[in-house]
Write a structure and sequence with these properties.
With 382 residues, this protein is mainly α. It is 78% helix and 1% strand. Strands 1-2 form a two-stranded antiparallel sheet. It is globular, with a radius of gyration of 21 Å. It starts with a helix and ends with a helix.
Length: 382
């Protein structure tokens, strides 16, 4: 019983720290088993490029789950939008930036279509997502004619395969750390203004020092290979934008309110239907970005693209501490959850683990993450 309460307290109060410890243990195990090959700069770069696609889906999915819904169509939507982008590039020679705008718009419209069925027609999101999974996968097969479509545009391929120069990476690292310092000072000033408790300077200094070490190590490792991959940079931009939206905007607060108590939020004057539909539209945009990145990374549109992608995205959110009951979760947690999933995939593939064992391990970890959520909720109800 004491051990159970300890798990409850650690997971509920220090979720991000617990996830980082889990990543450290996973990396240590695979480094030991691979005789150091796992932690080479080349493999770490490949690992982050692989996780970027799942992380994009997870960033959209975390808001959908926080609002008390689910979307099972995201893997098929990713594949369809990536296939459409390949067809536009090869068959119609559409310039990449125009291609990007078209596919983003289409993704948002498909997401809004799903959201309209959920929010206004009151069809359960599970059913809408399941139907979308079948419809979008069928549409992908029709668009690609069941064949792989190789990409010819260098700009398109560069979107998934290019790297930033080392100097640019270090400049971005300095700017990011400076932004963290500014946000820390603003937060302290705001808490003083409202006469709230302010953490001691040594604690803030230790936190900033840890952030500086993580940012510096991250950029140094990637620069020691080829530089920061463009998909990883895009993922970090999405992380920053979505975290800001969740914490600093009215819309972000409404997302949590809808998931925490839908009826009370509706009675307070919030258009809860519009909020939910907007979240599915945002999810569609993330599917478009992930689909474009996946097609660019593979340099081809594949009829099997995005297969099981919805499960990886959902698992990343739950592993990252998002509550399956809604109302609780963070974008950072979902990103770290995606990193855990990608680390398991990468490490087990490197060790030549059979695919069925990989599925068993990932499913078991998802079950454990949901159990921890249930355990934590029981502890809070007492």
């Amino acid at each position: 019983m004491n051990a159970l309460r300890t798990i409850q307290e650690v997971f509920s109060r220090y979720k991000i720290l617990a996830l980082l410890i889990a990543i450290a243990l996973i990396w240590a195990f695979f480094t030991w088993q691979s005789e150091g090959a796992f932690l080479t700069s080349r493999n770490i770069s490949n690992l982050f490029r692989q996780m970027a696609i799942t992380a994009m889906l997870a960033c959209g999915m975390v808001f959908v789950i926080i609002a008390g819904e689910i979307d099972l169509s995201v893997g098929s939507m990713l594949g369809l939008l990536g296939g459409v982008a390949a067809v536009l590039d090869v068959s119609f020679q559409v310039p990449f930036w125009a291609n990007l705008c078209i596919v983003l718009t289409l993704g948002m419209l498909l997401g809004l279509f799903n959201g309209y069925w959920v929010a206004y027609l009151r069809v359960p999101s599970f059913i809408v997502g399941l139907a979308g999974m079948l419809v979008f996968r069928g549409a992908l097969l029709a668009v690609t004619d069941g064949a792989t479509i190789p990409i010819e545009s260098k700009a398109f391929v560069g979107f998934g395969q290019a790297y930033l120069p080392a100097g640019v990476g270090y400049v971005l690292a300095v700017l990011l750390f400076g932004l963290m310092v500014v946000l820390t000072l603003r937060t302290r000033a705001g808490r003083r203004r409202y006469q709230l408790e302010v953490a001691p300077w040594w604690q803030e200094g230790a936190k900033l020092a840890a952030i500086a070490i993580i940012i510096g190590g991250f950029v140094s490792v990637l620069n020691s290979y080829e530089g920061i991959p463009v998909p990883v940079l895009l993922m970090l931009v999405i992380l920053g934008a979505f975290s800001f939206m969740a914490r600093r905007t009215v819309f972000g607060r409404r997302i949590y309110a809808v998931g925490s108590n839908l009826e009370a939020t509706r009675l307070s004057g919030v258009n809860t239907k519009l909020v939910k539909m907007s979240l599915f539209g945002l999810m569609g945009a993330m599917c478009a970005l992930a689909g474009l990145t996946n097609t660019a990374r593979l340099a081809a549109g594949s009829p099997s693209a995005g297969n099981m992608g919805e499960l990886d995205a959902i698992a990343s959110c739950f592993i990252g501490g998002t509550s399956m009951r809604g109302g609780s979760g963070t974008v950072l947690g979902a990103i770290i959850g995606a990193l855990i999933m990608a680390s398991l995939d990468n490490g087990m593939s490197m060790l030549s683990v059979e695919s069925y064992w990989q599925m068993i391990v990932k499913g078991s970890i998802l079950l454990l993450a949901v159990w921890l959520d249930v355990v934590s909720s029981k502890g809070s109800e007492r």
